[in-house]
Amino acid sequence: MDEEYDAIVLGTGLKECILSGMLSVSGKKVLHIDRNKYYGGESASICPLEELFTKFSAPAPDESYGRGRDWNVDLIPKFLMANGQLVKLLIHTGVTRYLEFKSVEGSYVYKGGKISKVPVDQKEALASDLMGMFEKRRFRNFLIYVQDFQSDDPKTWKDFDPNTANMQGLYDKFGLDRNTQDFTGHALALYRDDDYLLQPAIQTITRIKLYSDSLARYGKSPYLYPMYGLGELPQGFARLSAIYGGTYMLDKPIDEIVVGEGGRVVGVRSGTEVAKCKQVYCDPSYVQDKVRKKGQVIRCICLVDHPIPNTKDALSTQIIIPQKQVSRNSDIYVSLVSYTHQVAAKGWFIAMISTTVETENPEVEIKPGLDLLGPIRQKFVSISDYYEPIDSGLESQIFISESYDATSHFETTCLDVLDIFKRGTGEEFDFSKIKHELGDEEQ
Fold this sequence. Notes:
Number of strands: 19
Radius of gyration: 22 Å
Oligomer: single chain
Number of helices: 12
Distance between the termini: 31 Å
Organism: Nicrophorus vespilloides
Largest sheet: 7 strands, mixed
Helix content: 25-40%
Family: Belongs to the Rab GDI family.
Shape: globular
Pfam families: GDI (PF00996)
Keywords: Cytoplasm, GTPase activation
Function: Regulates the GDP/GTP exchange reaction of most RAB proteins by inhibiting the dissociation of GDP from them, and the subsequent binding of GTP.
């Protein structure tokens, strides 16, 4: 450890592994250390099934669950938007050659106690049971506007400047009612609260276009999920970093982040060894004095032996319960994956319900999600603190990721990673720097 590095990355959570890959690709000399023996940190996948039961202090699973090693259960499951940032990163970095993806079969939104498919095109808008006849037409006109919209062609803006006018103004222009605004903002644009209504409309238009472009790639939903679970992702980025010269050390205790004059980081100490560096990138668990608790997230992993009712027997699906539908301040997310993704034994499904904690009784808060699942064979509940860094890291050169939020997709994760990369390097990540023939040396 006596060499000097451009950057030391602490922890092998997905965000840290992506950053280490991006930094290595950008020509930085990277050392990546984790105190754990395994990849993934708090976003790890658990295998075999017995280990999951042990983790949550539950009696061992009986034989009806099949072979324990056929299970790979994500502690923080998330879906990838087919045209989203993470998939672009995977493709551009060549990490896709280590992974296989399957599209998620359904995308639903909750309204008035039941779930409906999220409508994304004109045909679905007219067939949807989320709206009455006149509202369907208004929503159809809104979707046509979004599909035809080109940010560089003001003629497609139709007398509405999306850079200065807010999203509420665009909804009003098309006469959309509150319910339609609700599922559009939360299930199509994937906002977590309603602050977006007062932001420039261009942001929401871009997000809805991302959803429909992602849907167009694979058809059934805009989401993808890796075979064998998300545990494959950190390892894919770790391989990428190694190909570009990154060094990895697992099971290495971190005793101190060494700070020099002016509060700037100069290295990382493990026992008597100190690795020198110019920058440190890490998750909140390594720097408790530099983060603040923003809130809590409740997650409930449910093992079920059937698809979610009213989803046309989809073997994988996402359901978003918008905040207002259940008189809350934050959405509830339900995701379902199954044996078709090689994460459960034949005939089994893994559902996850998550939301931001708002009361003293978090388990009651996720009840609307649990009620959608039908009979549950086993459930595991965890409540984790959500941390964010107290500063940008520019003075100390210690750049800290936020904890994983309650969302069931990766868009917010990617925004955090790209923001950290920009703060640390002073520039946007240049996707064109990556060798597209990556991995040829492994043939």
